[in-house]
User: Which sequence fits this backbone?
């Protein structure tokens, strides 16, 4: 009732709402503005300034933790600014509004044999969300992070002024990966790349331990275009790093554009059906899944052993290859794997950690040992390869990342949290990084060590947003809220 009364006095596109993080463990209440134009963005900024509120800009809300939440303050939800503004086939560049989703871009260009590198598995992520979290795809070691795909963007500053930022602009490396702290991205132009066809050949290579894994990766990184590695977090110490590598490379095919359109339309429909089916299934049977995960050690132990054994048998029988639409390889995992809040459960965590190539063997062994010694090892463990970029807050580096999803039982809550902290500490000690889009636990001390260039980001912020209009729950938690930061340790 109180919320209804408050809503009556607001501009039409603003409403108080309750929101939770994707995993569901963080609950917030915010004044949500859904602008359709840059003018409405300005109106929302000025409303918040007048009412002494801060703003967190939100894309599709597909980050796992509190990166796009702002409890008690405002959210600028950009999902309604989702038009494709221009497409130049000659230069293969596309200009879109901030809230346009990755899958919308595919629908516009993929039948013309173009692709967008660094697309995250979550194809419903918005372009601006992908820019601000500087996301990575399964091709990250090859084509880099999302930052490498950007030609230019428009940033609406706290002052209401809109500026154009291209790759040579002094603000480029601060805004990209800058978790929305410098202003509102209104639109962006992205560079697309030609491909042979919409199909990839997928090869699956089993690796018996970490040495086999790294040796196979070194070969695959030269011969393939994208890869993702399923790692067995339950394997014994002597088999740490036991895994199945899924590697893809673009292949030729001979359809006409008309035929490709049809094939891809069916592909998009299939993705959407999977998404709906996955959500419905897991909404209905989520509690059963949760119950099964109460005996997760034996269940996942058996599942992982079978998965690896199957990979090995198929490899020996030379049946480790198939050809399918890139759409499936690139995006389907997020639709067939249960939604994050069910994979992780109400007390769960997702964490993605990068570590340098030098010392990668020791890092993988140590991280897997921490997982194995936890009473609830992760439900999923995924490895990727990366290459560095120049962003001030950049998760990417010349190395690998491991992504873990934990689904702890109530009595193991503290132990699981401890395991996540140990994983982060080990990563920090090894010169690695923590992906902010998937984080919900990083402390200021850990953040300052992982991202020492945060000081440069804050100096720029002081210039562009001296009153600290743009912030988020994550910024407050990791100690880079400009107001709180005045008291930060030197
Ligand atoms: C199933 C699943 C799979 C995933 N796979 C991957 C993966 O493969 N690789 C990867 O890197 N990530 C992955 N992610 C994470 C996800 O892609 C990122 O969190 C991405 O940033 C989400 O985009 P979004 O539009 O939802 O952004 P949000 O979560 O809404 O926001 C992310 C950040 O961008 C800022 N922001 C958003 N829009 C604007 C704007 N217009 N102006 C200024 N700031 C803005 C927000 O303030 C916030 O800091 C996955 C997530 C899920 C759920």
Assistant:
């Amino acid at each position: 009732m109180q919320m209804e009364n408050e809503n009556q006095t607001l501009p039409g596109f603003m409403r108080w709402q309750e929101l939770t993080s994707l995993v569901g463990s963080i609950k917030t209440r915010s004044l949500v503005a859904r602008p359709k134009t840059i003018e409405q963005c300005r109106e929302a900024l000025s409303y918040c300034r007048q009412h002494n509120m801060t703003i967190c800009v939100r894309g599709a809300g597909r980050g796992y933790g509190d990166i796009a939440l702002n409890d008690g303050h405002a959210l600028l939800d950009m999902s309604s600014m989702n038009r494709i503004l221009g497409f130049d086939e000659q230069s293969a560049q596309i200009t879109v509004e901030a809230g346009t989703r990755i899958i919308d871009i595919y629908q516009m260009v993929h039948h013309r044999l173009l692709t967008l590198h660094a697309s995250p598995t979550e194809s419903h992520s918005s372009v601006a969300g992908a820019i601000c979290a500087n996301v990575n795809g399964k091709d990250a070691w090859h084509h880099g992070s999302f930052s490498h795909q950007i030609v230019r963007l428009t940033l609406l500053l706290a002052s209401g002024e809109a500026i154009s930022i291209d790759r040579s602009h002094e603000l480029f490396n601060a805004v990209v990966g800058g978790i929305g702290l410098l202003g509102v991205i209104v639109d962006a132009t992205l560079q697309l790349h030609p491909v042979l066809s919409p199909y990839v050949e997928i090869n699956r290579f089993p690796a018996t331990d970490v040495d086999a894994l790294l040796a196979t990766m070194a070969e695959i990184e030269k011969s393939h275009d994208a890869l993702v590695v399923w790692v067995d977090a339950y394997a014994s110490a002597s088999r740490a790093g036991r895994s199945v590598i899924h590697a893809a490379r673009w292949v030729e095919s001979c359809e006409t554009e008309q035929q490709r359109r049809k094939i891809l339309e069916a592909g998009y429909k299939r993705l959407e059906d999977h998404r709906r089916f996955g959500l419905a299934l897991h909404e209905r049977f989520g509690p059963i899944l949760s119950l099964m995960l109460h005996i997760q050690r034996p269940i996942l132990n058996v599942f992982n052993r079978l998965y690896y054994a199957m990979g090995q048998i198929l490899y020996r029988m030379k049946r480790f290859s198939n050809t399918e639409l890139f759409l499936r390889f690139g995006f389907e995992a997020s639709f067939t794997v249960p939604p994050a809040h069910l994979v992780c459960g109400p007390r769960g965590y997702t964490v993605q950690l990068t570590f340098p190539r030098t010392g990668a063997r020791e890092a993988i062994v140590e991280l897997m040992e921490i997982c194995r010694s936890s009473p609830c090892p992760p439900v999923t463990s995924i490895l990727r390869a990366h290459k560095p970029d120049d962003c001030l807050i950049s998760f990417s580096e010349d190395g690998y990342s491991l992504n873990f999803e934990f689904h702890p039982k109530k009595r193991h809550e503290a132990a699981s949290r401890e395991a996540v902290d140990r994983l982060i500490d080990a990563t920090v000690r090894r010169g690695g990084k923590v992906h902010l889009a998937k984080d919900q636990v990083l402390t200021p001390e850990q953040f300052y060590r992982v991202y020492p260039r945060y000081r440069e980001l804050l100096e720029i912020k002081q210039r562009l947003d001296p009153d600290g209009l743009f912030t988020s729950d994550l910024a407050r938690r990791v100690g880079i809220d400009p107001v709180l930061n005045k008291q930060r340790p030197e």
Observations:
- The chain is about 40% helix and 20% strand.
- Residues 486-490 have pLDDT under 50 and may be disordered.
- The pocket of flavin-adenine dinucleotide is lined by residues 22, 56-63, 67-68, 78, 98, 120-122, 125-126, 128-130, 132-133, 135-136, 179-180, 184-185, 334, 340, 437, 472 (CB under 6 Å).
- The chain has two domains: 81-194, 199-442.
